[in-house]
Amino acid sequence: MSSRTSLTLPILAGLWILIVAGLAILQPSAMALSTVTTVLQFSTLLALVSLGQAMVILGGGAGIDLSVGGTVSLVAIIAMLLDTAGVPSFLLPVVCLVAGTLLGLVNGILVTRLRLLPLIATLGTFYVYSGTALAITGGSAIGGAPAYLLPWGRGTLAGFPLPFVTLVLPLFVLAVLLLRYTAWGRWIYAFGFNERSARLVGIPVDRARFIAYGFSGLMAGLAALVSLAWLGSARPNIGQNLELTSLTAVMLGGVAIFGGRGGLVGVLAAVLLLVTLQTGLLQLNVNTIWQVGIIGALLILVLLVDNIRMIRRTA
Amino acid sequence: MLKTRTLLLAVAAALAASTTFAAAQDKARVAFVPQIVGIPYFDAMQQGGEQAAKKLGVEFVYQGPVDTNPVDQLQIVQNLINQGVEAISVSVLDASSLAPVVEAAKAKDIKLFTSDSDAPDSGRALYVAQASDQGLGYTIIDEMVKRAGEDAKIGIVSGEATASNLNAWIGYMQERVKEKYPNVTLLDPQFAGGSAERAAQIAGDMMASNPDLKGIIAVASTTCPGVAQAIETAGKIGAVVGTGYCSPNTARAYLKSGAFGYSVLWDPSELGYLTVWAGKQLIDGKTIPAETTPEGMSHPVTYDDKTGILLLGDPAVFTADNVDDFNF
């Protein structure tokens, strides 16, 4: 599995350099610190959600979390509703974490206890979560996020957005360590790769998988918190499309859709690549409809290169 | 490893070279960010904007999201600010969505304003309004009552539940009914998102569950075809009056078939024209008079200095009789 990761990273890095070089030549004015800030700012939500998504997919058993976008929306709404209802503002981050984790654990129960296929279970909760967020707000945003959050959500440190520096980077480091050095992390790879043998050697597959879904919910809750601190309001559709873009990032980052193989560094690299590409195309004023197509083509291309290499190796 | 290093060197070289021929912009740029690209309404605004740009000697940048997603829209606006585009207009998807970038725009002395859909408390320079929200809400109800009667039951099918302009119109419809037509029943609005099929489904269900329904209002331009088709397929032409805020080209077939009694709108290409004109005034630092006829337009527009609203004019009502006089 490490040989796979080590090829994904150079491909992504190469593509990234290609994009930056292309942008430097075609639109020199884009080579500014503000572009770096923009890329990282718009990477933050996606990076957090993708981290959770990656954990769920790595855990195999056809694991997937389609509810992440709905979770982000619903957590943001719940947190702001409680805040306006008089719950002390300093508790808002806690509310986000708890609500996100609980919504994620619902997926965990559906998948590990009630034995629903993850695709179906999380598609269902996706509709329930995003629908509920829209229904309780009637579609409008709830303004008035606590003022103490905004300097963090909008602030930068030497051009780097604070949420990225203080949340995304530490969490990815932590998650990499978690996967590498804890029993739970090794189990994820083990049963992601071969569930039957994992069960035979006595790994508590269901419990570990249950935690993985909770972790994905927790990450979505954090993303909701960042959105509140950044935008200053809760939007019932803030998480729209995050389920598909996070899947794209995880696949692009070299995580196998059937689980058990791939790494988190690749996922972070893929997130940065995707957002850099978007930003670059926007700076060049390329029609946004083309952008969607280009990202799709990129995904197919990278997976194809990877596949060809695998076929060659086995041949 | 060696390869990576050469690539890095190439990038460094490209960076160094780039600073020497930094692009010199000779024309001021005015950007417009729609709510979504690829629909006829915003295409018409784009055309109008391009005409104005040609006439007024500015460059027009048109860039918008493929989904009605506020974060995607914010990202586009942020990138236009980074590019230093002199004036940026936005058809706001969500009233609070401009907040994080307003300061960034001010710091770069960029004129950020709204058009088509507003964010009133965001600190935007001005708002180019298609017709007053009140005028649109009241007109569609008045015309409906004329056709369906003073005791009609009327349904509403809207688009995105988060779109602030659509919600404002619905608010004025409800206000008008409450104040002027106490016997009219206005059903709660249903939201179809951006899809015509969903709108058709909702309209169909609405007619089935309310046999005494006399009229259906399609609020978003994307919901018009769905509502009209639902009335046609239910065989309710004549029994249910359809209408909506949709362009003559969208409504033409339905106005002629009778599924739609009328349609209320303004000319989006004129709105696009006025948007670019307003951007030019902001860049030039000119104050806009209370009433003026912009260069290249056929009728005067009004400007309210207090609210910062630049109004295109009264809404137009299109019927089977006059629809062929328009092409947008």
From TrEMBL, chain A:
Gene Ontology cellular component annotations, sorted alphabetically: plasma membrane
Entry keyword set: Cell inner membrane, Cell membrane, Membrane, Transmembrane, Transmembrane helix, Transport
Membrane disposition: Multi-pass membrane protein
Pfam (any one): BPD_transp_2
InterPro entries the UniProt entry points to: ABC_transp_permease
MF GO annotations: transmembrane transporter activity
TM annotation in the entry: 7-26, 32-49, 56-78, 90-114, 126-150, 162-189, 210-232, 238-257, 264-282, 288-305
Cellular compartment(s): Cell membrane
Subunit architecture: The complex is composed of two ATP-binding proteins (LsrA), two transmembrane proteins (LsrC and LsrD) and a solute-binding protein (LsrB).
Function text: Part of the ABC transporter complex LsrABCD involved in autoinducer 2 (AI-2) import. Probably responsible for the translocation of the substrate across the membrane.
Protein name: Autoinducer 2 import system permease protein LsrD
TrEMBL record, chain B:
PANTHER family: ABC-TYPE SUGAR TRANSPORT SYSTEM PERIPLASMIC COMPONENT-LIKE PROTEIN, D-XYLOSE-BINDING PERIPLASMIC PROTEIN
Gene Ontology MF annotations: carbohydrate binding
CDD domains linked: PBP1_LsrB_Quorum_Sensing-like
Ranges annotated as spanning the membrane: none
Residue ranges of coiled coil: none
An example Gene Ontology CC term for this record: outer membrane-bounded periplasmic space
Originating species: Jiella endophytica
Pfam families: Peripla_BP_4
UniProt entry keywords in alphabetical sequence: Signal
Boundaries of every Periplasmic binding protein domain copy: 30-286
Location of this chain's protein in the cell: Periplasm
Chief subcellular location: periplasm
Protein family per UniProt: Belongs to the bacterial solute-binding protein 2 family.
SUPFAM superfamilies, A to Z: Periplasmic binding protein-like I
InterPro entries tied to this protein: Bact_Solute-Bind_Prot2 (IPR050555), Peripla_BP_I (IPR028082), SBP_2_dom (IPR025997)
Protein name per UniProt: Autoinducer 2 ABC transporter substrate-binding protein
Endpoints of the signal sequence: 1-24
